[in-house]
C-alpha cells in the first residue's frame, strides 16, 4: 500500500476512534443521543457490537475507566493489531521522543545515568564533564524530585527522563538525597547537548594487531563514529578489524549505508522492494576508512534490521565473514509518521534484501562460523565468539 493510502486509512480510523472517545466521555447518554443503528463508519461498517460491549463495560466494570486519551490509543492499537504485523505500531509521545533522541545520538539534558536500587530509589551517576557533575551532583545521589514534583517508586524511567530532559539552554531543578546528609540538596542545572555515542573501540589486549569496534545502534552519527574509530585503530597499529554487531537492534537505513561505506567501495548495500513500486538499489558512498583491512563481523540473535543489512552486505560482497549465532531476521521497512499529539505511527511498507537477494525477514543470516555464547560464558566474562574471530584473523594470510 502506498504511503498516502496508508496515511489516509489511518487518519480515517483515528477520526472514527476520536468519535468513539467523545461518546465514551458522554457515557450511556451517548447511545441515547446517537442510536446504535446510526453509528456507521465512513466505510459502511456498523459499530453496534462495539457499543453493546462498551455499555456493558460501563455498567459492570469494577475498576476505574481509562482516560479519553488512553481510549484513543487503545482503539488505535486495536485497529493496528488486526493487521497481524508486530512492526506496525503506535508509539506514544514520551517513548517517541526518546526514540528520536536515540536515533539522533544526542539530546538536551543534564548528563546523568539512572538506575533503581532494591528499595526502588532512583540512583544518579553523572557523566564526566556534564552539566550535572559541574553543578555538584555526585555519584550515588538519590533523585527525590524534579521541578518540585516527587519521584515515586512507580514512576517509569521514560517519565523521569522526560521530566529531566528538555530544550538545550533551559533550566531544570532536581532535588537529591545524599548519603550522610539529613537534608535534601537542590540543584538548578542548565540543560546542554548530551552526546550518546553508538561506538566504542579499542586494540585487543591479547592481539595488538587487531582493532575492535562495537556498534550498539545505527544513529545519525554512526557513520562518522565508525570512520573515526577505524582511522584511530589503524593509527595505533591495527592491521585487522572486528566489527561487533551483537545485540544491535538496528536504527537508521542511512546510517547502515554510511557504516557499510567505511568497508566497501562502489558496491550494492541492499535492495528495497515497496509494494507497487520499482525496486530501489542502495549503493555505498565514497571515502571509506577501512576498504582493504581484513574484517570479521560478530553477530547473534539480537542482531537485527539495519545490523543485518550491514552484515549481509559485507558478506555478500566478500568483504567479511560472520562469526557467532544466527541473526534475528527483520528485513521489513517501517515508514514513521509523526502524529499531531507527539506520538508516531510505524507502518510496515517494504522489504529489504541483501546484495545476493537474500530475504532477511523470518530467516536472518546464518554465520560462516557458528559459535554460541552461553549465559555461563557471559557471567564468567568469557567471549568465545570474539576469541574465534581473533583465531580466524590470526590464521588469515
Unreliable stretches, pLDDT < 50, 5 or more residues? Answer: 1-40
Provide mean pLDDT, rounded.
86
CATH class of the largest domain: Alpha Beta
Number of strands: 19
Oligomer: single chain
Shape: globular
Report the end-to-end length measured between terminal Cα atoms: 50 Å
Structural class: alpha+beta
Question: What is the alpha-carbon Rg in Å?
Answer: 25 Å
Major sheet details: 6 strands, antiparallel
How many domains is the backbone divided into? 3
Helicity range: 25-40%
| Alpha plus pi helix count | 12
CATH superfamily of the largest domain: 2-enoyl-CoA Hydratase, Chain A, domain 1
Amount of beta strand: 25-35%
If classified by CATH, what would the architecture of the largest domain be? Alpha-Beta Complex
Layout of SSEs?
Layout lengths: L2 H24 L2 H5 L14 H13 L7 H14 L7 E3 L1 H12 L1 E4 L2 E5 L5 E5 L4 H5 L6 E5 L2 E2 L6 H8 L6 E7 L7 E6 L1 E4 L3 E6 L2 E9 L6 H14 L4 E5 L8 H9 L6 E7 L5 E4 L11 E5 L6 H11 L4 E4 L7 E7 L5 E10 L15 E2 L4 H5 L4 H12 L2
Parallel strand pairs: 11-12, 12-15, 15-16, 16-19
Antiparallel strand pairs: 1-18, 2-9, 3-4, 4-5, 5-6, 5-7, 7-8, 10-11, 13-14, 13-18, 17-18
Helix pairs in contact: 1-4, 5-7, 8-9, 9-10
Amino acid at each position: 500500500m502506498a504511503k498516502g493510502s496508508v496515511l489516509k486509512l489511518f487518519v480515517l480510523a483515528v477520526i472514527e476512534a476520536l468519535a468513539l472517545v467523545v461518546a465514551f466521555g458522554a457515557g450511556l447518554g451517548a447511545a441515547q443521543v446517537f442510536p446504535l443503528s446510526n453509528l456507521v463508519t465512513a466505510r459502511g461498517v456498523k459499530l453496534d457490537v462495539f457499543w453493546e460491549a462498551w455499555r456493558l463495560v460501563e455498567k459492570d466494570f469494577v475498576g476505574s475507566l481509562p482516560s479519553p486519551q488512553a481510549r484513543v490509543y487503545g482503539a488505535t492499537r486495536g485497529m493496528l493489531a488486526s493487521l497481524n504485523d508486530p512492526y506496525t505500531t503506535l508509539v506514544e509521545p514520551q517513548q517517541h521522543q526518546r526514540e528520536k533522541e536515540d536515533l539522533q545520538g544526542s539530546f538536551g539534558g543534564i548528563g546523568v545515568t539512572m538506575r533503581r536500587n532494591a528499595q526502588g530509589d532512583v540512583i544518579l551517576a553523572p557523566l564526566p564533564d556534564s552539566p550535572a557533575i559541574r553543578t555538584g551532583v555526585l555519584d550515588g545521589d538519590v533523585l527525590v524530585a524534579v521541578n518540585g514534583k516527587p519521584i515515586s517508586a512507580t514512576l517509569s524511567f521514560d517519565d523521569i527522563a522526560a521530566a529531566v530532559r528538555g530544550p538545550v539552554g533551559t533550566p531544570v531543578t532536581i532535588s537529591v538525597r545524599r548519603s550522610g546528609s539529613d537534608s535534601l540538596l537542590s540543584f538548578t542545572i542548565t540543560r546542554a547537548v548530551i552526546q550518546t555515542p553508538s561506538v566504542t573501540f579499542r586494540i585487543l589486549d591479547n592481539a595488538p594487531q587487531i582493532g575492535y569496534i562495537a556498534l550498539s545502534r545505527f544513529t545519525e552519527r554512526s557513520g562518522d563514529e565508525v570512520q573515526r574509530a577505524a582511522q584511530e585503530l589503524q593509527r595505533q597499529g591495527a592491521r585487522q578489524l572486528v566489527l561487533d554487531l551483537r545485540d544491535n537492534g538496528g536504527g537508521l537505513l542511512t546510517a547502515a549505508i554510511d557504516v557499510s561505506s567505511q568497508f566497501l567501495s562502489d558496491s550494492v548495500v541492499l535492495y528495497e522492494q515497496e509494494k507497487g513500486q520499482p525496486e530501489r538499489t542502495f549503493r555505498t558512498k565514497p571515502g571509506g576508512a577501512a576498504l582493504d583491512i581484513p574484517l570479521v563481523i560478530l553477530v547473534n540473535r539480537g542482531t537485527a534490521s539495519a545490523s543485518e543489512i550491514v552484515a549481509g552486505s559485507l558478506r555478500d560482497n566478500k568483504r567479511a565473514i560472520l562469526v557467532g549465532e544466527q541473526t534475528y531476521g527483520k528485513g521489513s521497512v517501517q515508514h514513521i509518521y509523526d502524529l499531531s499529539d507527539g506520538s508516531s505511527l510505524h507502518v510496515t511498507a517494504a522489504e529489504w534484501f541483501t546484495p545476493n537477494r537474500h530475504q532477511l525477514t523470518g530467516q536472518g543470516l546464518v554465520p560462516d562460523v557458528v559459535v554460541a555464547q552461553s549465559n555461563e560464558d557471559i557471567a564468567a566474562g568469557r567471549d568465545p565468539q570474539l576469541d574465534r574471530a581473533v583465531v580466524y584473523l590470526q590464521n588469515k594470510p
